[in-house]
Structures are given as C-alpha cells and as structure tokens.
Write a structure and sequence with these properties.
Blueprint: H1 2-17, H2 21-27, E1 35-43, E2 48-54, E3 61-67, H3 81-89, E4 93-97, H4 109-124, E5 130-140, H5 142-152, H6 155-158, E6 167-173, H7 185-191, E7 213-218, H8 227-239, E8 243-248, H9 253-258, H10 270-281, E9 293-295
Parallel strand pairs: 3-4, 3-5, 5-6, 6-7, 7-8, 8-9
Antiparallel strand pairs: 1-2, 2-4
C-alpha cells in the first residue's frame, strides 16, 4: 500500500511540475456526483462567466466561491473542475468564476470582477441549491489574495451594491497578502503606479471586524513565502479579529491545492479543515471558537 501511494505521489509530483498539473487532476476527477451549470454570465458589462457545481438534492447548502490563482495573468475556471467536484462531494455548492487577467486589466479591475461574481452568487445561488446567507470565499495563490481583499476591504462589495456581511468566512490557500516591495516588472505594472503599492496589500485593511478567516500554507512553498500567511494571521489576531492558521511542513505551493482533489485527500488533511471551517462558520448558531493556530504534520 505504501509503495502504491509513493508511486501515485510521484506521478502527481511529475504532473504538477509541468503546466499540465490541473489537467492531470481534472482527468482523474469523477464526472458524477454533482450537477454542473457552466458558462453563466455574472456581469453583462464584461461578459465574464462562472461555473456552478451542485451536489445531489442540495437545498439551502453552504456556498463556496473559489477564485483560482495564476499570478493574475493566467488561469481559467475550467481548469479547476477538481476543486468544484471536491467541494460538491462535501455537500457544498461550489462556484468558480473567471475574472479578467493582466494585461487586459490591472489592479483593481480584477477585484471588481470578483465582487460582481459574489453579487451574482448572492442574488442567484438559491436556484442552484445554495443558501445566499451561507457564502464562504476561498482562493489559492493569487485567488487567495482576491478572496482576502474582498473579505478585508468592505469597499469592493459595497461598490456592487453588496456588503461584507454577506461573507460568512474566507479560506486562503498559500496567498500573497504582504508582498512589498514589488520588484517584478509585470507586477509593478499590474499594481502600479508605485505610490499606490501599499494600498494593494491585504494586510493594510485589517480592522478586526472581518468575518472568520482560515489561512493555510505549505512551509515548502517556494512560490509564495509562508511569511505572507504568518503576517496576515498576526495582523488579524492583534486587531482582535477571528483567524485560524494551518501550516503544513511538507507541502509546497502546488501540493497544497492538489490535496483538495478527491483522489489525493489522504495525503494531507487540507479538505477536512476546509469542510470543518465551512460548516462551522455557516451554522445557524454562533460558532464555537477553535484553536487560533494549528500545526499539521503531513504523514510520510
């Protein structure tokens, strides 16, 4: 059994090392166990679309809106079927939006897209078995940044006629939340002009009044430093806001999101933490306070 698991892990490592990582995860993802409504336009002005994954017989289910990563320059909702399926398998309605990318747009246009997607979800998700009063935002990498900005800065949802009160919780997987100085030319253009760089950082908007936040990161991450998660966690905790942290000593940037896929949930407990958090923050009664920081050891 250990040999089979090692061979499977080696296959995943090889796939994730290339550009076909998401395609590999999608290829081994079940096509059954959920209903898929794809290419639903959430903003007529831009034509941006989203996909909805609904579990069987869903009625008033918690809703998870997942924003994909890709450095705000690449990515597509279709590449994250494995995330939609995994969330639906846990009984959640999963919504995966596209949003406009650089160089088509620059900061903060892509965040406005994400806010429009959340507004669409609040208005329409009941028709897909979800409860509009049980919305949780989730993202990986750049997508975690998007989720954090919508959660920490009330302005983005207010601009689309919404409210931060819509958000019951936020889950950030390996997100960049405090990445000054910005030195890469493409990111300087994306987030510029330079005098505005400080205003682009999620840590700036911590006010202690945020919905509950779950931050998860692999300590072997060479793409987004774990210091981003540690800094945001410390800022929210000092401000008195609800925040939890889960660190994985043996996971890197790509393995953290790969572990969400149904076929690989036995490698670490990423999806178990996600499920527990979503159910707790969307429960009808006031959620009990969990440990503020959890250190998880990935099994050999």
């Amino acid at each position: 059994m250990k040999l089979l698991r090692a061979l499977l892990a080696a296959c995943v490592v090889a796939a994730l090392a290339g550009c076909a990582g998401q395609q590999f995860l999608n290829a081994i993802t079940p096509d059954s166990g959920y209903a898929l409504a794809s290419d639903l336009v959430y903003d007529a002005a831009t034509g941006e679309k989203l996909d909805v994954y609904t579990p069987p017989n869903a009625r008033g289910a918690p809703v998870v809106v997942f924003f994909f990563g890709g450095r705000w320059e690449r990515g597509d909702k279709a590449e994250y079927k494995f995330v939609g399926q995994a969330l639906a398998a846990r009984g959640f309605v999963a919504v995966i939006p596209n949003y406009r990318l650089y160089p088509q747009v620059r900061y903060p246009a892509f965040l406005r897209d994400c806010a429009h997607a959340v507004a669409w979800v609040h208005a329409h998700v009941a028709a897909y078995g979800g409860d509009p009063n049980k919305i949780v935002l989730m993202g990986h990498s750049a997508g975690a940044y998007n989720a954090a900005m919508l959660t920490l800065d009330p302005e983005f949802l207010q601009q689309v006629g919404g409210s931060r009160a819509w958000i019951r919780g936020m889950i950030g997987l390996a997100g960049p939340y405090d990445f000054l100085p910005i030195t890469d030319p493409d990111l300087r253009e994306l987030f510029g002009p330079p005098e505005n760089f400080p205003r682009t950082q999620p840590v700036l908007y911590v006010d202690g009044r945020n919905p509950p936040v779950l931050l998860m990161h692999g300590e072997q991450d060479q793409t987004v430093s774990v210091k981003n998660t540690n800094e945001l966690y410390d800022r929210i905790q000092r401000a008195g806001g609800p925040v939890e942290k889960v660190l994985y000593p043996k996971l890197d940037h790509k393995w953290l999101i790969a572990d969400v896929a149904t076929r690989f949930q036995g490698y670490a407990d990423v999806m178990n933490h996600i499920e527990e958090f979503v159910r707790r923050v969307t429960s009808g009664s006031a959620p009990s306070a969990p440990p503020s920081s959890i250190q998880t050891i990935v099994p050999d």
